[in-house]
Amino acid sequence: MKKLLASVALALLACAPAAWPQDAAASAPAVAEAAAAVVAAASDAVAAAAPVAEAASAAAAPAPVPNKGDTAWMMVATLLVILMTVPGLALFYGGLVRSKNMLSVLMQVMVGFSLIVVLWFVYGYSLAFTEGNAFIGGFDRLMMKGVWDNVGGTFANAATFSKGVYIPEIVFAAFQATFAGITAALIIGAFAERMKFGAVLLFLAIWFTFSYIPVAHMVWFWMGPDAYSAAGVVDEMNAKAGFIWQMGALDFAGGTVVHINAAVAGLVGAYMVGKRVGYGKEAFTPHSLTLTMVGASLLWVGWFGFNAGSALEANGFAALAFANTFAATAAAVLAWCIGEALLKGKASMLGAASGAVAGLVAITPAAGNVGIGGALIIGFIAGFACLWGVSGLKKLLGADDSLDVFGVHGVGGIIGALLTGVFNSPNLGGPSAVGDWVTVGMIAPDAYSIATQVWTQAKAVIVTIVWSGVVSVIAFKVVDLVIGLRVTEDEEREGLDISSHGETAYHK
């Protein structure tokens, strides 16, 4: 623009002596000075208008359009996680209790899951996944406000892990709602067969608010890849992320947020609610291993949505998580059966089902963070470790953890979280981790430190254990003071199906 204006001014000056009268030609220096002033003024105007034009251009740029394939996959993944819980987890737990408590477990899982989903959409999502501080978010999405623009007729988008790739925020919120719901439902297995129905629901509401939401925020909240636009903003963006994210801990689908978090709450509950009447004196055998096997199978199928869906896109990392979930679970089934055969002389259906869950738990934080070889090793180790967790460790702890929530989800979650730091290494077949979100560059093999990453993983585990433990103690105490934790001894002996719900699972 400057060159164009200068050219016009020079052309006018060149024509002046020949075409203008003599007195005008004599004043050519004045004309030249005026022309120069015009050029300078026009240049200033152009310079001043440039930022406005750029801003207008940016404002006019269309919002990113979510890929329909990614969106469809995430809705399917959400449905799969619902399948994990209702009916998967409900049947898995239900088959493990005595027949007189079957419906009570189904009710606690189904209603507890529903309660948490409602609370999630009211305030949970906002506090977990909006900007606040390192430990909790804010109220920008209270009652899901802002996910739909009535004036513009558009939905808000949520970031994935790829620059420029988004999914509708409402789909992301629904997917995460299922995580919150199943995490709360997992806790129920630890104090099954003896806790008041109302007490269960009140505890879940308190624990969800003060343990699940903060841990989810600490582990998973960050500003998204597009926020890392230049090296100069990296520190600022990192400072806005959750506390455990800032550590650099890897948790693909919830080893800390879901399994360790729930397992610690369950163990605390087993202690504070107390042992079942007759525990250690009477047989507490599962009333239907058939239903437990069906439930475990539904968990396995649904877990593909849980793990592969955590990639937030239908891409290679989703495929890696899918394959790892398949491989690790199968390896854990075999490991548990081998361990039982060595210890007891024969493998059991209960052991095979428990092994499947152990493998699923352990691979959760590692699903998109390790290679298939690493997944197989994690699965084998988890199978043996969780077998010890429900036998040797359970005796050492001395708690009546009814359905071995801590032995499987606690031990498996810890094993998986720590081994993620090992097998994420590109030197061991892992995909490594992003070292630079500006360029989305991965940590090179020669720069990856297994010891450093494992220590980071361990710190994340410790923070989760302490946080959930403290919140759980307080929550159980509050519930005990408000409405009491346990049913009466007579109600417990009669069975919670009749005493709490007035119905029975089986008519004889």
Radius of gyration: 30 Å
The portion of residues forming beta strands comes to under 5%
Q: Give the total of beta strands.
A: 6
What's the average pLDDT?
Answer: 90
Give the spatial strand order of the biggest sheet.
1-2
Judged by helices, strands and strand pairing, the structural class is: mainly alpha
Overall outline: globular
Biggest sheet layout: 2 strands, antiparallel
Q: What are the low-pLDDT stretches, counting only 5+ consecutive residues below 50?
A: 1-32, 34-43, 45-59
Termini separation = 93 Å
**Count of alpha/pi helices:** 19
Percentage of residues assigned to helices? 55-70%
The H/E string reads: HHHHHEEEEHHHHHHHHHHHEEHHH
Structural features, described:
- By secondary structure, this protein is mainly α.
- It has 19 helices and 6 strands.
- It has helices spanning 2-19, 22-26, 28-60, 68-96, 102-129, 169-187, 197-220, 234-239, 243-247, 255-273, 289-308, 316-344, 349-363, 372-389, 392-397, 405-423, 450-482, 489-494, 496-501; strands spanning 148-149, 154-155, 157-159, 166-168, 434-436, 441-442.
- A two-stranded antiparallel ribbon has the order 1-2.
- Helix 10 (255-273) packs antiparallel against helix 16.
- The termini are far apart.
